[in-house]
Request: fold
Amino acid sequence: MTNELAREFADCASFEDCVAKLHGAFYFCYGLTWDKDENTYSLRIDRYKSLYPQWEFDEEILNVTSRDRCECMNHFFEDAIWVGMTFWDAAPDMEWTDYEGV
Reply:
């Protein structure tokens, strides 16, 4: 993924579902969500071994909740959840995937 596309992907992950492929695995970002009753933001990312013909779950790699939207996104960028790398280190090897068309 180019830097520009990586920025767009990160922006997408901050408000809607999106999937990146990295080293053969699929990373499903559920998008940053707001819980108005709890007054918190949440961000979750699951890794799948495959998406076709069936979604094959591997593991949950991020599940963070905070009253601070930026804190959630900082985990997305800074935690070494992308095969032991941060988002920006892994981004050149990522591919944005259209999971609905897989």
About this structure: The radius of gyration is 13 Å. The chain has a mean pLDDT of 92. Residues 3-13 form the longest helix (11 residues). The chain has one domain: 3-97.
